[in-house]
Specification:
By secondary structure, the protein is α+β, with helices and mostly antiparallel strands. Helices cover about 55% and strands about 15% of the residues. The chain contains 10 helices and 13 strands. The strands form 3 sheets. Strands 1, 2, 3, 4, 5 and 6 form a 6-stranded antiparallel sheet that branches. Helix 1 runs antiparallel to helix 2, helix 7 crosses helix 8 and helix 8 packs antiparallel against helix 9. The protein is rod-shaped and about 215 Å long. About 25% of the residues are buried.
């Protein structure tokens, strides 16, 4: 029995030993596990913190990209990106400045200044405003605000090109524990983004400007094309006119010669007939001559010949005008005084029996000297004055004035006559455009005037309102000092 107990005790002891060992092993293992679990937990916590930080960073980048692409002006872009930087770094002070040639150019925009810790002067004294190049990254330096004795913080700043010759500065004050290398890297990426966006905005502005210039050029091109079409038409008309003038001249010459010959031959023939009738008075021949009114034919034929001569004169004038229109030469230029031209033309206009109206004249006290062909300028002025007199036949007055217009002298012919309807204003310089009755106008006057003034490097302008009046201005460049020496009085 005792032996049996002893055996059981030994068995129990062995089991106890085994279980003690097993418990110790389990305890060690538990220790290991809990240590590993702790470490794993720690790593996880750190990872979560990093992820949170990265998330903040990503959010910061996303927002900054959004701001950069949507900003419409430089200032809103800079301010909104600075706001983001300040939030990201939890800065206690954030401001942006603009500088030109090393000096501040505008009042700084302060985005935040907790407890008014920083004065503008403190900051601007620190910034290297005279730097002409872009800082390669954000600069960081210890900073103790002068107006309170707080712990030192970090002043973080960077610059960028804001516009032509204008630099911009972003400045933040960040407490020591809130800034680390990671954040500074993120801020660097951010400033790169800001610089890129500003370049884009500047380029957009430049592009808009270029587009405007291109639009202007397109406008000028289309005007030039239109003018080219008109010039081309005028040139072909010129060729045509020259041909017509030439063709008209030859028959005109022999019609005129024949006319003269007929006149010359007819008078003695009739005289002879008259003598014959007297000599053969009462004869059948004399009765025949009388009954057919042959002797009265003289008057009729002379009248017809007179009409022919007038017609031939008119045709010659038209032919001459056409030739002037084609060959409005700039030869025979001399220095002339427009005051004198105006007075001379007025005398000639007075000869025109048709128009008895007085034309008021205003000349300059000093000579209005231009380098021109006086005959041609007189021709232009005469046509314009006669047009004005014609337009005021029923009502209205005509006035002329010589004016000094900086680089040019002008002659203004103003009338308060019938005026020109808007839709006809473009047509009046076209050859053969006339509203005058048959025999009253050829419609060549203004076309010739324009080609003459163009050939003088001048300008012929017109302003008109129907039923109110018309104003023509002839502008001619002033004669240079050198040319004035040879002035013809
Ligand atoms: N001062 C004016 N007031 C109103 N209409 C005018 C005036 N000047 C010109 N015009 C208009 O312009 C047209 C063209 O003028 P332009 O001098 O070229 O020819 P014209 O006077 O008709 O003939 P001409 O060849 O004999 O000069 C005129 O017929 C007239 O309709
Ligand atoms: Mg005319």
């Amino acid at each position: 029995m005792k032996r049996q107990y002893e055996q059981e005790i030994a068995l129990l002891k062995r089991r106890l030993n085994r279980e003690t060992k097993a418990r110790k092993l389990a305890e060690r293992m538990l220790d290991d596990y809990s240590q590993q679990a702790f470490l794993a937990n720690e790593t996880l916590r750190k990872a979560v913190a990093t992820v949170e930080e990265k998330q903040l960073e990503i959010e910061f980048f996303v927002k900054s990209t959004e701001e950069s692409t949507s900003a419409e002006s430089h200032l809103t872009l800079v301010e909104s990106l600075l706001e983001l930087c300040a939030t990201f770094t939890d800065a206690s002070y954030a401001a942006c400045f603009l500088s030109k040639d090393g000096n501040l150019t505008s009042t700084p925009t302060i985005i935040r200044n907790k407890e008014n810790r920083v004065s503008q002067l403190d900051v601007t004294n620190v910034l290297p405003l005279s730097t002409t190049h872009l800082l390669s990254a954000w600069c960081i330096q210890e900073f103790i605000p002068s107006n309170n004795g707080r712990e030192p913080s970090w002043l973080v700043y960077c610059n960028f090109h804001y516009a032509e010759n204008v630099d911009g500065w972003l400045v933040m004050l960040i407490d020591s524990e809130l800034i680390d290398e990671e954040k500074l890297h993120a801020l660097d990426a951010h400033i790169a983004q800001l610089r890129h966006s500003l370049d884009k905005l500047n380029n957009d502005k430049l592009r808009k400007l270029e587009m405007k210039v291109i639009d202007d050029l397109k406008g000028q091109l289309s005007t030039a094309r239109k003018q080219l079409v008109v010039t081309d038409r005028m040139a072909s008309l010129g060729v045509l006119a020259s041909g017509v003038a030439h063709e008209i001249n030859n028959p005109l010459a022999f019609i005129s010669a024949n006319n003269k010959y007929l006149k010359r031959a007819l008078v003695p023939a009739i005289e002879g007939l008259k003598k014959l009738v007297v000599a053969l008075d009462g004869s059948v021949f004399a009765k025949l001559v009388e009954s057919n009114h042959l002797l009265k034919l003289e008057e009729t034929i002379i009248e017809v010949l007179q009409d022919n001569t007038e017609g031939i004169d008119r045709l010659s004038k038209i032919s001459d005008s056409l030739r002037t229109f084609v060959h409005s030469s700039v030869d025979e230029h001399t220095v002339i005084d427009l005051n004198k031209v105006v007075k001379d033309v007025l005398k000639v206009a007075a000869f025109s029996k048709k128009y008895t109206k007085d034309v008021s004249v205003q000349t300059l006290e000093s000579p209005a000297l231009v380098n021109a062909n006086s005959r041609e300028i007189e021709q232009v002025l005469l046509n314009i004055v006669i047009n004005a007199l014609h337009a005021t036949e029923n009502h209205g007055d005509v006035s002329m004035a010589v004016k000094d217009e900086n680089y040019a002298f002008s002659i203004e012919v103003k009338d308060s006559g019938i005026g020109i309807p808007k839709e006809n204003l473009e047509k009046i310089f076209s050859p053969f455009y006339t509203t005058k009755g048959v025999g009253e106008g050829t419609g060549l006057g203004l076309a010739i005037s324009k080609s003459i003034i163009d050939a003088h490097d001048g300008v012929l302008k017109v302003e008109s309102t129907e039923n109110v009046g018309t104003c023509f201005s002839i502008l001619l460049p002033k004669a240079s000092e050198k040319q004035n020496m040879g002035v013809i009085q």
